[in-house]
Amino acid sequence: EGGAREGEEWIFLSSKDANLMDMGETQAVFLKHQPTHVIHLAAMVGGLFKNMRANLDFWRNNIYINDNVLQAAHEVDAVRVVSCLSTCIFPDKTTYPINETMIHNGPPHESNFGYSYAKRMIDVHNRCVGQRGRCYTAVIPTNVFGPHDNFNIEDGHVLPGLIHKAYIAQKEGSPLVVWGSGTPRRQFIYSLDLARLFLWVLREYPEVDPIILSVGEEEEVSIKEAAEGVVEALGFKGQVTYDRTKADGQFKKTASNAKLLRYRPNFTFTPFKQALKETCDWFVANYDTARK
Ligand code: GFB
């Protein structure tokens, strides 16, 4: 499942190519490339703490990006658009495991409701443009990590944040400070596994309805266990402490990957420890140029 297949031309765009919050620039870049298939990953994203600080920006910026991209794709007659939701947009008060039918069944967690509602509107948009004959869809990844991530400690997600903090703590001989109690639970998907699944969704997945892309419920770990995984992967020898003055955010958002396994019964995820090791090795080798 490597790169482009025969007859496929892949074009990678970044925010340097167009400000997707601007409809004119978005239409211009779509007219320039005339894509038939689009993997839409553009978004204003961040970890728990960045979301808590900026729900209005997360709401507005993502609403603009998503409406512009989906409308511009429709206007250039793209046959496929795969957009990105997240398991953090599900209702906070819910039964477990969460599945794809539950997206709109109640308010999301307070910490990131701006981002969550903006993302939920992608599903509404896909269903609306579906009435015009489009089969645009969305995936719902659980917490993603891997090389090339945003390792910024204040704004990034938990695993890159812990990797960056442990790297500094190791050099300075200071403790690794994990934020919160360490008890919340998360499922983590390795970015390389997610990329393989994205290609399958783009080429084969037949539904407008979204599909969760996650490791199984049994792979869910506590933040404490994730931190211990980082300590092991980096070979950190110092003390680990927990700063309980920092928020825990959503306690859990356990998602079912049963729908994925129905389509891809033989898909194998990279083992968590191996994925963490590869991510840590990448970060150490690319410290100077990594986004942080
Ligand atoms: O990845 P994260 O920031 O976002 O994880 P969420 C937050 C959890 O990790 C909280 C704990 O329980 C934090 O207390 N934590 C411990 C840390 N140490 C750290 C650290 O150094 N950095 C960070 N960031 N957390 C996000 C949503 O929720 O999930 C986003 O807010 C996005 O919208 C993302 O969807 C996937 O998993 O809590």
Description:
There is one protein chain. The chain has 292 residues and is α/β, with parallel strands linked by helices. The protein contains nine helices and ten strands. The chain has helices spanning 23-33, 48-53, 55-75, 113-130, 158-172, 191-203, 223-234, 258-263, 272-285; strands spanning 37-40, 80-84, 137-141, 143-145, 176-179, 185-186, 188-190, 211-213, 221-222, 240-243. The strands form four sheets. Strands 1-2-3-8 form a four-stranded parallel β-sheet, with helices on both faces. α4 (113-130) links the parallel β2 (80-84) and β3 (137-141). α1 (23-33) packs parallel to α3, α5 (158-172) crosses α7 and α7 (223-234) crosses α9 (272-285). The longest helix has 21 residues, at 55-75. It is globular and about 60 Å long. It starts with 22 loop residues before the first helix and ends in a 7-residue tail after the last helix. Bound molecules: guanosine-5'-diphosphate-beta-L-fucopyranose (GFB). The site of guanosine-5'-diphosphate-beta-L-fucopyranose has 26 residues, from α2, α5 and β5. Residues 15-213 form the NAD-dependent epimerase/dehydratase domain. InterPro entries: Epimerase_deHydtase, GDP_fucose/colitose_synth, NAD(P)-bd_dom_sf.
